[in-house]
Design a protein that fits this description.
Elements: H1 11-16, H2 23-34, E1 41-45, H3 51-56, E2 62-67, H4 70-78, E3 88-93, E4 108-114, H5 122-132, E5 133-149, H6 153-164, H7 167-170, H8 188-193, E6 206-214, E7 237-241, H9 243-251, H10 254-263, H11 269-281, E8 289-302
Parallel strand pairs: 1-2, 1-4, 2-3, 4-5
Antiparallel strand pairs: 5-8, 6-8, 7-8
Helix pairs in contact: 6-11, 9-11
The protein binds S-adenosylmethionine.
S-adenosylmethionine (SAM) binds near residues 47, 67 and 116.
Length: about 300
């Protein structure tokens, strides 16, 4: 997934327009980890703008964030705050498949991978994770899929078209491709869609494997009440958004950047998408809508 590595990629905008992960999820993760794991070193892979790595400092003495994108790593490095003397954090280029040589074999207590492990080569990722983890260390990865407009099936259909479909499949003579489906890297986007059901940490390297998915209510009534859901998953992500926020969210997608490289001199696919939503749904830039993300997490211990 090279889009995030491009210097034109706006990592600050990315940071502002993406969901964060809830406190109950970090509690679930740390409770799982602490059954057998230590808290000296955590490595956050695909760290992006670094917010998971910074969060891990609450629990670990040393944290290393790695990402193949130098744009992301530079942003993280400029954001390092002054830390207490017993804590350190560093950011360095590395991938799920090949971590930097500074991370020694059997040295890591916890590996986290948020919103990135659908893009990786899974066989290499599991082998590399097992290589750097200590015995009984934890591999934890998770992600959210698409925001679901609760109570608005028509909006969800429009979303599905722009995210997964190709207008040219229906109308080969279309002047240009009106959807972003063909502009996603595969098989990563299919793995995202299936909540990565196809892949699991191999049982010769890992044990105590937990996989938990949450598929949100699609077309029920908006709740505006977080308590109605929190029992369903600790990784519960809900937001009340408006179309201005949603426009920036679409602009943070890798497929948006790939699409714009081909057609951006004439059109902006995020604006076309949001204009259609507004027109069909009667929404304005500041109309408030509830969205909930389908999520999945996997925890496993190194043998
Ligand atoms: C959607 S961002 C997620 C960032 C952050 N972890 C979060 O939760 O928002 C995906 C990140 O995965 C990184 N990435 C892409 N391919 C990767 C790979 N093979 N190994 C590790 N990270 C990868 C990208 O550079 C990007 O920063």
């Amino acid at each position: 997934m090279s889009t995030y590595a491009e210097t034109s990629f706006n990592s600050q905008q990315y940071d502002n327009s993406r969901p964060n992960y809830p406190e109950p999820f970090y509690c679930e993760l740390i409770n799982y980890h602490k059954v057998k794991g230590d808290t000296q070193l955590a490595v956050d892979i695909g760290c992006g703008s670094g917010f998971v790595a910074f969060k891990l400092l609450e629990y670990f003495d040393h944290v290393i964030g790695t990402d193949p994108s130098s744009t992301m790593i530079s942003q993280c490095q400029t954001n390092i705050p002054k830390l207490p003397e017993n804590k350190t954090i560093e950011f360095t280029i590395g991938s799920a498949e090949l971590q930097p040589s500074g991370i020694l074999p059997a040295s890591v207590d916890l590996i986290t991978g948020a919103e990135c492990c659908h893009w990786v080569d899974h066989a290499k990722f599991y082998t590399e994770s097992a290589r750097i983890l200590k015995r009984n260390g934890t591999l934890a990865y998770w992600f959210y899929k698409d925001p679901v407009f609760v109570g608005y099936p028509q909006a969800n259909e429009i979303y599905e078209n722009y995210t997964y479909n190709s207008s040219r499949e229906v109308n080969p003579d279309d002047e240009f491709e009106r959807y972003m489906g063909p502009y996603y890297q595969q098989p990563g986007h299919d793995y995202l869609r299936s909540l990565l059901k196809e892949k699991s940490p191999p049982s010769d390297l890992f044990y105590d494997i937990v996989r938990h998915e949450y598929v949100s209510e699609r077309d029920g009534s908006p709740h505006n009440d977080e308590d109605a859901y929190v029992t369903k998953t600790p990784l519960f992500i809900r937001k009340v958004i408006d179309m201005t926020w949603f426009l920036n969210y679409v602009k943070s997608w890798s497929a948006y950047h790939t699409w714009m490289k081909e057609h951006g001199d004439k059109y902006d696919i995020a604006e076309i998408f949001v204009d259609e939503l507004k027109k069909e749904m009667g929404w304005k830039d500041d109309t408030k809508v509830e969205v909930i993300w389908d999520t999945v997490y996997t925890f496993a211990r190194k043998k």
